[in-house]
Write a structure and sequence with these properties.
Layout lengths: L11 H15 L20 E2 L3 H6 L9 E7 L16 H7 L10 E5 L2 H13 L4 E5 L7 H4 L1 H8 L13 H8 L1 H11 L6 E5 L29 E6 L9 H6 L5 E9 H20 L6 H8 L11 E5 L11 H13 L19
Parallel strand pairs: 1-8, 2-3, 2-5, 3-4, 6-8
Antiparallel strand pairs: 5-7, 6-7
Length: 356
């Protein structure tokens, strides 16, 4: 992956490698993938920093465009994630769903469990928020869960690293399903919006309890957002030295996939490239969650360069959880620009309650 902080020197070897790569690329079945120039500075800032003092002194504005939020819950049972008392189980997600009582955006939510779907509808309807739910009673018909037999086969190899919680085929499939749900919601476009955001069901799990509490907010476009890119939170700077195998076997991270935002056209294209790349990596006996897939897609070792550029927002230490930086940033911006009503008593937005 190219580091934008230094301009690469064009050597004879690099030119030769580029020519060879082009020839291989043109003969590939993935000829529809094109070079997106994802890491050039000419297309705008790649990393955006927003220190906390700017929020306090000069509330930032983010462009308010109608954005459909897409989420999903797939009942894969209880998955232990390595953190004490924080297994991923249905009861926990029943609590996490309460956070969607506060998100004013129209929401399209996907389920394979009718009980969880009904609970989500109750939470949203009690707040009078626009909602569409879609139930897949047989999730194995979805592209993401069709991959599970192959993933199990890869993980059964004795030399493949066993990493919690990622060493779980259903968990991997659930993360891949984001890139099924998003294009489905875009194609249906139930709320007629140009922009869409994927948001994990448990992303805003630190909201205060109680409906109608004036803690509502909207997910808007991030500050200095480039409409020709898809916005993510960056967890760690990309390492050009990491091979594809290193990314998967050593469980390396570049961007957090809990929330990302972009125009419908770009997100649909990203989903197509993601599905192609996932299947390609599986043929290479490489399997992990969506975050490793995304890292691998944009690695310099991946010759099929994605068509969609990514704009990253770098955590600056002002949020409680760096993995949730982009969402917390947008929530804080909304709250800075939309004060608590005078009639709201005992409303302290600084005292957020974890749904753990």
């Amino acid at each position: 992956m190219v580091d934008i902080r230094r301009k690469p020197k064009l050597t004879f070897g690099l030119i030769a490698f580029s020519i060879l790569s082009t020839l291989i690329y043109l003969s590939s079945p993935a000829i529809w993938l094109r070079n997106a120039n994802s890491h050039t500075t000419e297309n705008g800032p790649r990393v955006c920093r927003y220190p906390a003092w700017r929020l306090a002194q000069n509330p930032m504005s983010s462009k308010i465009e109608p954005i459909t939020v897409v989420t999903a819950y797939w009942n894969i049972g209880a998955i232990y994630n390595g953190i004490p008392f924080q297994s991923k189980d249905p009861k926990r997600y029943m609590r996490y769903m309460e956070s969607y009582a506060y998100i004013e955006n129209p929401v399209v939510a996907y389920f394979d469990d009718p009980v969880m779907e009904e609970l989500f509808q109750v939470i949203r309807n009690r707040s009078g928020l626009p909602t569409k739910t879609v139930l897949f009673r047989n999730r194995t018909k979805l592209w993401a869960f069709n991959l599970e037999p192959r993933i199990k086969e890869i993980y059964s190899h004795p030399d493949y690293p066993k990493v919690i919680p990622n060493f779980h085929s259903s968990y991997d499939c659930a993360t891949h399903a984001k890139f099924v749900a998003v294009p489905h919601a875009i194609q249906a476009n139930y709320f007629n919006t140009e922009y869409f955001a994927w948001c994990d069901m448990g992303y805003f799990r630190d909201m205060p309890a109680g409906l109608k509490s004036h803690y509502h907010f909207r997910i808007t476009l991030p500050p200095k957002f480039d409409m020709e890119k898809v916005a993510f939170t960056e967890i760690s700077a990309p390492d050009d030295k990491l091979s594809l195998k290193d990314i998967f076997f050593k469980l390396r991270f570049w961007v957090a996939s809990g929330l990302f935002i972009g125009r419908a056209e770009l997100l649909s294209r990203l989903a197509e490239d993601y599905q192609y790349s996932t299947e390609k990596f599986l043929r290479m006996n490489l399997s992990e969650t969506d975050q490793q897939i995304l890292y691998g897609m944009y690695s310099r070792f991946n010759l099929d360069i994605p068509r969609t550029e990514i704009q990253v927002y770098l955590p600056d230490g002002t949020t409680r959880d760096p993995w949730m930086f982009l969402g917390e940033l947008l929530r804080e911006i909304w709250w800075q620009n939309n004060p608590i009503p005078n009639e709201c008593h005992n409303c302290n937005r600084s005292q957020l309650i974890d749904f753990f």
